[in-house]
Each structure stands twice: as C-alpha cells, then as structure tokens.
Amino acid sequence: MNIEKTNFEKLDVYKLSEQLSDIIWDIVIEWDYFAKDTVGKQLVKSADSIGANIAEGSGRGTDKDNIHFIKIARGSLYETQHWLRRSYKRKLIIGENIKQLLPIIKELGPRLNAYITSIKKKQTIY
What is the CATH number of domain 10-125? Predict the structure, then answer.
C-alpha cells in the first residue's frame, strides 16, 4: 500500500514514538500470560498512546489543541517509563532490552518538548 504520508507521520518525534512502541510490543509479546495481562497491557497501551496523541493533536486543526495532545503524549511517555521500571524490577525486561529502549526514551522527552516549543513559536510569528 503506497499512501502519501500525513504531516505527523513525517515528524521525527512521531517516528521515534513508533519505534519505541514497536520495540515494546516485540518484548511484551514474549511474556507469559500473567505478565502480559497485567504489566504488559499497560505498557503497550501507554507506549502506543504517545504516537496516537501526536497524530490526534496534528489532526485537530488548531495549535492549541495540538499542544494539548502533545502534552498528553508526554504524559504517556512518563507512564511508559513507569511501566518499564516495574517490568525491569520484576525481571520481565533484561539489560539488552534496556540498552535498546533507553536511547529512544532519552531522546523522545526532549523532542516532545521541542515540538511544543516550535508550535508556540509559530503562534507568536503569526
């Protein structure tokens, strides 16, 4: 399927959120039923919510709404970090997974903040 990408799909911050979400999915899918049903579902939902909120904000049509949803995405990132800490503490995630996830998480927070700032700057120009 070759559909032209929407504006949000071209954003590096969105691409990072997809990358994080896909890695988390690949990790959680290997867990046993109990781990998937408790921590796993929460972790996958919070990670998926980051990109979903970037997309929704982009489609709302106003900068104010977009900023609101990017802030929700940032909250979902923090929730994802919480569930990753729980997963690590409960020995569901190993060091190799952390090495894969940590650089993305460290980059995603500042990128979300920069995206908010860029929208606010655009507002002051017009």
Answer: 1.20.1440.60
**Sign of the torsion angle spanned by Cα atoms 88, 94, 97, 102:** positive
pTM: 0.91
Torsion angle of the four alpha carbons 121, 71, 67, 69, in this order, in degrees rounded to the nearest 10: 160
- Asked if residues 63 and 7 have their Cβ atoms less than 8 Å apart, the reply is no
List pLDDT tens digits, range 81-115.
999 999 999 999 998 999 999 999 999 999 999 99
In 3D space, the residue among 8, 9, 13 whose CA is nearest the CA of residue 113 turns out to be 13
Q: List the chain domain ranges.
A: 10-125
Share of the chain above pLDDT 90, in %: 87
pLDDT of residue 1: 47
CA-based nearest residue to 105, from 10, 11, 8, 21:
21
Go through the chain and tell me how many residues it has. 126
CA 92 to chain centre: 20
